[in-house]
Amino acid sequence: MRAGDQPYDEEALAALPGQSFVFYDDGEALFGEDGAYSYTYSAANGGGTAWGSYRVAQGGQVCVTFVNGMSRCDQYVTNRDRTVVITSDGQRFPVRSSQIP
Questions:
Q1: Closest by alpha carbon to 73, among 60, 84, 59, 88?
Q2: Dist CA 2 CA 87 (whole Å)
Q3: For residue 22, which of 101, 70, 93 has the smallest C-alpha distance?
Q4: Mean pLDDT score, 35-42
Q5: N or C end: fewer C-beta atoms under 10 angstroms in the chain?
Q6: pLDDT tens track for 43-87
Q7: Domains, the chain, with CATH or none
């Protein structure tokens, strides 16, 4: 994590269902009300959608298991009023816009 990173708290994590996050590459993550998850790649990145399910793990990480069997856990933080997704290998993906239910 970097200076200024504030991990999502319980309230922010509880508000994930129904939210959509659009990233700067135009990819979009959608958190379903029922635990379903989808990530739609931008046309520039080949398009298509990866389907799966998500859960909030101990420590506040958001873990996704895809239908192809792959899984990952990411940390969601805010920094300067922007949501940033931090992957397990430290990559940072700022969210361009989000829709909150």
A1: 88
A2: 13
A3: 93
A4: 96
A5: C
A6: 888 889 999 999 999 889 999 999 999 999 999 999 998 999 999
A7: 6-92 (2.40.128)
